[in-house]
């Protein structure tokens, strides 16, 4: 396989310049590379190596921007005003096999997976002879590594593979990505697993993560690291995509309980204050500590949703009621106009500094769990439970005060829930996967603001898959291109 899955040095130096939530993120007193062919021979070295895996996920090419924002940009919720050329190929469905965004998502997804696999392998190899104290460290490291690998495999499978389930239809046999329990050495011949096999691996990794957290006595208590509630939240998300409704319900409820978020904020000021940066979002379980000292500047999500001219689409803006507290972050920049909108950042505004480049990515959050609970209960024919869970989020619109303000029938409630996911989860990178799994006719490529207009309507987005990067195909180590991928784009 290409150089993205490789044999080499997993270096602590990869992470110089990246800070975490506290001083312990770079828990090393030296900055030298660790030879993965024998260097991961102590709990301390494994712990240092884990920082490299986090660093790869933190990168703008991975969850720090590209792998997250690809879930929002090509959907009905975003609007591009044509002033810059960033992401326009993805937005207009005019990508090629040499698209840089797709190439980097592939590369850094495999960096996260490779680093995590090496940590897991080393942890297991030295565990038996470790001291009891070191075993606790190794269990914690492996718990986080399993979760990081699962996170990377999940977004890569979604980007390069078909949605696993679409409104009851099973696409598990479609080609996914290359997965492996072991680190994959350079120049190894590989082949793509099916989407179903990829999801099975993701679920196994997340469950193993929870097992190791239990052996470690819990997580670090720091939301910049993978933790119990975040892993349960990811299991709820994955179960939702797999249409395993009971598991989705169970894990969402566990995430809510273990995450300690029983209710949400329902004031405009309170909602606004969630996006001051870092730990200000008290409804988040796991986030990247992007901040004034460590950020991607022009390559940040905040810049994408401001200077690089993406904004909420007129359709999305019209979906919020007049009393919806989420309107408090829907400000436009001073140079914005009705026909050429320029957004002020929204969830990436970083109000404490007013510099959107400093804004973090909140990746696993409590509101999503309540919405998963609602959808799972609806699919399990418990309309009352679905209404109660949905109400927790829907009350962000102050005109909604009780279940009597929600649709009383299943079809109406499901339509409302779909819209509520749009209102609540905008800028969290989940919309594309929602549109695909629901299988509803989609609208994409908004234009002609402030009017609600799309170049493509009634698009069957459920079949959308992005191409494997040409650089990987040309490496000739067994990764094959998805047949007919271009035919899945709107015409």
Mean pLDDT: 92
- Just give the CATH class: Mainly Alpha
What share of residues is helical?
40-55%
Oligomer: single chain
- The helix tally amounts to 16
| Cα separation of the termini | 33 Å
- The low-confidence runs, each spanning 5 or more residues with pLDDT under 50, are 2-20, 22-32
Strand content: 5-15%
Can you describe what's shown?
With 491 residues, the chain is mainly α. The chain has one domain (9-273, 363-488): Serine Threonine Protein Phosphatase 5, Tetratricopeptide repeat, CATH 1.25.40. Helix content is 41%, strand content 7%. The strands form five sheets. The chain has a two-stranded antiparallel sheet. The protein has a two-stranded antiparallel sheet with strand order 3-7. It has a two-stranded antiparallel ribbon with strand order 4-5. Strand 4 and strand 5 form a beta hairpin. The longest helix is centred in the N-terminal third of the chain and has 29 residues, at 132-160. The radius of gyration is 22 Å and the shape is globular. Mean pLDDT is 92; it is low at 2-20 and 22-32.
């Amino acid at each position: 396989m290409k150089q993205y899955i490789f044999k080499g040095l997993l270096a602590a130096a990869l992470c110089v310049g990246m800070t975490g939530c506290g001083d312990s993120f770079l828990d090393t007193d030296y900055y030298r590379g660790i030879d993965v062919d024998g260097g991961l021979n102590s709990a301390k070295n494994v712990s240092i190596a884990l920082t490299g895996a986090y660093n790869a996920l933190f990168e703008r090419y991975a969850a720090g921007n590209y792998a997250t924002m690809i879930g929002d940009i090509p959907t009905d919720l975003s609007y591009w005003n044509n002033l810059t050329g960033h992401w326009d190929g993805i937005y207009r469905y005019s990508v090629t096999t040499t698209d840089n965004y797709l190439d980097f998502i592939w590369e850094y997804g495999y960096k996260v997976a490779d680093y995590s696999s090496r940590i897991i392998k080393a942890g297991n190899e030295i565990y038996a002879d470790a001291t009891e104290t070191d075993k606790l460290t190794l269990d914690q490291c492996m718990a986080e590594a399993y979760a990081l690998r699962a996170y990377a495999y999940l977004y890569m499978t979604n980007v390069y593979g078909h949605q696993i389930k679409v409104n009851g239809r099973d696409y598990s046999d479609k080609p996914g990505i290359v997965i492996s329990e072991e680190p994959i050495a350079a120049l190894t011949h590989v082949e793509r697993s099916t989407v179903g096999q990829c999801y099975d691996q993701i679920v196994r990794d997340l469950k193993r993560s929870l097992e190791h957290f239990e052996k470690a006595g819990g997580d670090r208590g720091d939301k910049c690291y993978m933790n119990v509630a975040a892993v349960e939240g990811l299991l709820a998300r994955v179960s939702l995509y797999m249409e395993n409704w009971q598991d989705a319900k169970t894990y969402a409820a566990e995430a809510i309980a273990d995450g300690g978020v029983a209710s949400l904020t329902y004031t405009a000021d309170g909602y606004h204050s969630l996006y001051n940066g870092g730990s200000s979002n008290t409804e988040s379980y796991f986030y990247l500590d992007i901040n004034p000292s460590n950020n991607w500047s022009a390559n940040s999500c905040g810049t994408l949703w401001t200077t690089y001219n993406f904004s909420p689409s007129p359709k999305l803006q019209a979906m919020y009621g007049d009393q919806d507290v989420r309107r408090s972050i829907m400000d436009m920049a001073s140079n914005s106009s009705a026909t050429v909108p320029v957004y002020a950042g929204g969830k990436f505004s970083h109000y404490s500094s007013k510099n959107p480049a400093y804004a973090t990515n909140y990746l696993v959050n409590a509101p999503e769990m309540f919405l998963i609970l609602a959808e799972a209960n609806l699919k399990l024919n418990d309309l009352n439970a679905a209404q109660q869970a949905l109400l927790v989020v829907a009350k962000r619109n102050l005109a909604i005060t009780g279940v009597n303000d929600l649709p009383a029938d299943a079809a109406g409630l499901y339509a409302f829930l779909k819209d509520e996911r749009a209102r609540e989860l905008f800028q969290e990178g989940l919309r594309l996967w929602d549109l695909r799994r629901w299988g509803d006719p989609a609208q994409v490529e908004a234009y002609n603001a402030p009017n609600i207009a799309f170049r493509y309507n009634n698009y069957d987005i459920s079949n959308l898959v992005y191409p494997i990067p040409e650089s990987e195909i040309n490496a000739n180590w067994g990764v094959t291109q998805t047949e007919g991928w271009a035919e899945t784009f709107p015409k």
